[in-house]
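User: For my dataset I need records formatted as: sequence, then structure tokens, nothing else. Please produce one.
Assistant:
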Amino acid sequence: MKFNRILLKLSGESLMGEQGHGIDVKRLAEYAQQIKAVHDMGVQISIVIGGGNIFRGLSGAGKGFDRVKGDQMGMCATVINSLALSSALDAAGVKNRVLTAIRMEPIGEFYSKWKAIEAMERGEVVICSAGTGSPYFTTDTGSSLRGIEVEADVMLKGTRVDGVYTADPEKDPTATKFHDITYAEVISRGLKVMDVTATAMCMQNNLPIYVFNMDIVGNLERVMAGEEIGTLVHN
């Protein structure tokens, strides 16, 4: 399993670490070190990070927020997380660049496919923030879109679980793990790997997804070394 260019999707919730809200500096530093290790292998890296540790548009809509404004608040949350990760990468000595899907200079440069690819080819880690820039899309869809646009070999979805299961392993002790599974089966079984829009985009554009537990330090390197520690979703 040799990937030259990856799109790494990180969960906003995972950034909370042990504290249950906001950004855990220890978890952030661990992520930065894992990314640095893979970057040092010469892999081109783009990253999309969620915002669920700060604000989630969909749950905001359930609490009476206007859905569009709620999603825009969620996009801003991803920018905060992206800046935090950028700062942690700076501290680890990794050159990086934050691109935003909505104009936000001087916080980040406005995203374009070519800007992202040029930066990766120069050896910078590219952090794509603000989702797709449109409401009604999740950061999962943002990851699918960016992964396809920047022509990544794979989307690595770093979560709290070590792959795709028949049910939620945190709730159902009888849940069993898939070694690999097709997109079509993910959709037909209604598995919560990503939302249906994101999964369908990856399926149509043949972008494989590898789901693994990013919260165990060293796992990102293990995936890159070809160790089978997660689940591959493919056509």
